[in-house]
Design a protein that fits this description.
By secondary structure, the protein is of the alpha+beta class. It has a single domain (4-196), classed as Methylpurine-DNA glycosylase (MPG) (3-methyladenine DNA Glycosylase, Chain A, Roll), CATH 3.10.300.10. Helix content is 15%, strand content 28%. It contains five helices and ten strands. Strands 1, 2, 3, 4, 5, 6, 7, 8, 9 and 10 form a ten-stranded antiparallel β-sheet that branches. Helix 4 (119-127) crosses helix 5 (142-149).
């Protein structure tokens, strides 16, 4: 990616629920290059997904479903194609796309975006009166991208298949993706379920990819 804005198709299609009702690792890979869009009264912000991580089931110690069903993780057990937003360490909101079928808790954490639309609005939300933030850094990291797009707990449980919060196919060219260990967690670090566009300036981590990492 990197020159994706110029190569984007003018035909934009919201991803249907069936896109998410599949194996989570397949969804993770296929989300790379898709566009997260948030429409708010302030304006529209959008960015292409360049980094994502899979969290799968109660047997995954890093997944919020590890302790079993709770009030907090209830969206993970619901229908696919829904946003699961939570507050991380009392500081940052993180947004996930729920995958697989009802009763099979799994989701994909969106870790980084390449900003495409509403960059001035993103910058204003991120800067908060401080120094200017360069475009590649606006949505680098899961907490930064939610701030830039204005995503909070108010968007928890919203369908991703219709506005105001949606993931869309804009026909972005992607090329190869790589897999490696998940980052920013204390357990389950041995599972190479993080997928990203190699060399992209908006990717939040610089880990070495692992061949065959999806298994």
């Amino acid at each position: 990616m990197g020159r994706s804005r110029a190569g984007a198709s003018t035909r934009r299609r919201v991803l249907p629920r069936g896109f998410y009702e599949r194996d989570t690792l397949s969804v993770t890979a296929d989300l790379i290059g898709k566009v997260l869009v948030h429409r708010t009264p302030e304006g529209v912000t959008a960015g292409a997904i360049v980094e994502a991580e899979a969290y799968i089931g109660e047997s995954d110690p890093a997944c919020h479903a590890a302790p079993g069903p709770t009030a907090r993780n209830e969206p993970l057990y619901g229908p696919p194609g829904v946003a699961y937003v939570y507050l991380n360490y009392g500081m940052h909101y993180l947004v996930n796309a729920v995958t697989e079928g009802r009763g099979h808790p799994a989701a994909v954490l969106i870790r980084a975006l390449e900003p495409l639309e509403g960059l001035d609005l993103m910058a204003g939300r991120r800067a908060g009166g401080r120094r200017a933030i360069e475009a590649p850094s606006l949505c680098r990291g899961p907490g930064n991208l939610t701030r830039a797009l204005g995503i909070s707990l108010a968007q928890n449980r919203l369908p991703l298949t219709a506005p105001p919060l949606s993931i869309e196919d804009w026909g972005m060219p992607v090329g190869d993706v790589v897999w490696g260990p998940r980052i920013g967690i204390r357990v389950g670090t041995d599972r190479p379920w993080r997928c990203w566009v190699p060399g992209h300036s908006s990717v939040s981590g610089r880990r070495v990819p692992i061949d065959g990492g999806r298994t």
